């Protein structure tokens, strides 16, 4: 419990510095500022990887003392670090797709740029809570019913095909309309902003502002993305601490990733293809069971990490080449 408490204290400290110091006043987050924060988070993730290696190698706070239900191995320092980095990269790459969705939400609701950070900040707090619950439930299911991994594998393959073929714009707009309609059934909604506040009093009646509507939509869409990302993380490890920490580091970087990429996300032409390939690969890994581990040997997770990195690099390079040709 000390490991969990220490990590949650670190996360809350980072969020407090973000909201109370760096972004105390509402302002438009520049690309330079977003990139700087992204670099800081990547460096912190690298430092945490080293900490994970040492903690699991020496079994600090009882870490690495249980068999991983996914591969049946004890997570020593090297294996735990590889699994953390793999999970982190997968979650971070899937978050890039979430950037596109958030950009559409803010555009449709005409959220001023200086208030977008506040929506994302509170949205991430909700995302942490939701994913924490889903990880606890997923870990419990895997511990009791190992066959649930095969269900996750089929689901990820289905998601990979759907992501490759679906037209996201149509689905997102339909989901937005449905969620807003349901929200209006229970809460009065105003079309007016009240600076960075989520409610406004009009004619003595408290109403939700467009910022609150945007927050609800962001939370709802993140729940949908979590249904893909959490099973993907369980393809790497069933260690709840590794799953949660890799997810949290990716989520913490989601805001800065949004401000860094939102204006240029359309240039990543092969983003969907890359993410589909990664989800399909993870789904196949889950369905293969012990066959893949027996074939690749003890370095199976390291090979998996290499393939994920390779897919992301190929997708990025192909997107840049295509952008130059059309530009």
Written overview of the protein:
This protein is mainly α. It has one domain (2-326). Helix content is 76%, strand content 2%. It has a two-stranded antiparallel ribbon with strand order 1-2. Strand 1 and strand 2 (205-208) form a beta hairpin. Helix 2 runs antiparallel to helix 9, helix 3 (77-109) runs parallel beside helix 8 (240-252) and helix 4 (113-144) runs parallel beside helix 7. It is globular, with a radius of gyration of 20 Å. The model has no long low-confidence stretch (mean pLDDT 86).
The beta-strand count equals 2
State the secondary-structure class.
Answer: mainly alpha
Order of secondary-structure elements: HHHHHHEEHHHHHH
**Oligomeric state of shown chains:** single chain
Number of helices: 12
For the largest sheet, list the strands in their spatial order: 1-2
From the N-terminal CA to the C-terminal CA, the straight-line distance is 53 Å
Low-confidence stretches: none
* Global geometry: globular
The helical percent reads over 70%
Structural domain tally: 1
Amount of beta strand: under 5%
Rounded Rg: 20 Å
Mean pLDDT: 86
Major pleated sheet: 2 strands, antiparallel
Which labels suit this protein?
globular; 327 residues; mainly alpha; 2 strands; 12 helices
What's the gist of this structure?
With 327 residues, this protein is an all-alpha fold. The protein has one domain (2-326).
